[in-house]
Specification:
Residues 60-210 form the SGNH hydrolase-type esterase domain. Keywords: Signal. Residues 1-21 form the signal peptide. GO terms for molecular function: phosphatidylcholine lysophospholipase activity. This protein has 220 residues and is of the alpha/beta class. It has a single domain, classed as SGNH hydrolase (Rossmann fold), CATH 3.40.50.1110. The chain has helices at 2-22, 28-40, 54-57, 62-65, 81-86, 88-92, 106-111, 117-134, 155-170, 205-215; strands at 48-52, 71-75, 99-103, 139-143, 175-178. The protein has a five-stranded parallel β-sheet with strand order 2-1-3-4-5. The longest helix has 21 residues, at 2-22. The model is unreliable at 4-8 and 15-20 (pLDDT under 50).
Length: 220
């Protein structure tokens, strides 16, 4: 009987462990990985902090594009502005940057194709407010949502969100809207598909090179 009780207790413990492991919030592991990186290599002060989704995550060699800058890349693939808000403390508190650059919002629309642009704009404003609470005077820049060919049906909402975020950022001190959409177009104004890898969502090195050409004047 005692043996059966022990087996049953062990089974319950394992069940609870598996349950709670499955209940961890989305992107929890990404945040833990950032914490581990910070322990192994304490983040430099006065760096440029990148936060956002996979366009940053996949820019693994971003430091090579800005060799005279200190870059901390904290992009995590698939993230939405809601996730930046949820993890704001983890994304901001460990760092003392001189500049924060954000690329996020594309996945908000991909997650819900009925989502209104105003909702995404308000999500961004909420995150911007959290940044300003902690860093009232540093430079904060937002990179426009790119028009990925695989998400063409979402372009109207994305264009509206870009316009409204641009208008908002123009009114903020020490802030800028970095528009990368034009440099990703051909001479006829069409999105250049050759700047994307096979999934027509993520970019080639040439795409990042073009981003760099637009971002350079804003880099502190």
């Amino acid at each position: 009987m005692k043996t059966m009780k022990k087996i049953f207790s062990a089974f319950l413990m394992l069940t609870f462990a598996l349950f709670f492991a499955q209940e961890k919030p989305m992107f929890w592991q990404d945040i833990q990985n950032f914490k581990k990186l910070n322990l192994e290599n304490p983040p430099a002060k006065n760096a440029i902090l990148l936060v956002g989704s996979s366009s940053f995550t996949k820019w693994t060699d971003v430091a090579n594009y800005f060799p005279d800058k200190t870059i901390i890349n904290r992009g995590f693939g698939g993230s939405r502005l809601t996730d930046l808000n949820d993890y704001a403390e983890d994304l901001l508190n460990p760092y003392q940057p001189k500049q924060i650059i954000i690329y996020c919002g594309e996945n908000d629309f991909a997650d819900n194709d009925k989502l209104k642009a105003d909702v995404v704009v308000e999500r961004f404003k909420a995150f911007y407010k959290k940044i300003r609470t902690k860093f009232p005077k540093i430079e904060v820049d937002y990179i426009s949502i790119k028009y990925s060919p695989s998400r063409e049906k979402l372009w109207p909402q994305m264009k509206e969100a870009n316009k409204k975020i641009s208008d908002f950022m123009k009114k903020q001190p020490n802030a800028a809207f970095i528009d990368i959409t034009k440099v990703m177009q051909d001479t006829n104004g069409n999105v250049r598909k050759d700047l994307f890898v096979e999934d027509m969502l993520h970019m080639t090195p040439e795409g990042y090179r073009l981003w760099t050409s637009v971002m350079n004047p804003y880099m502190k």
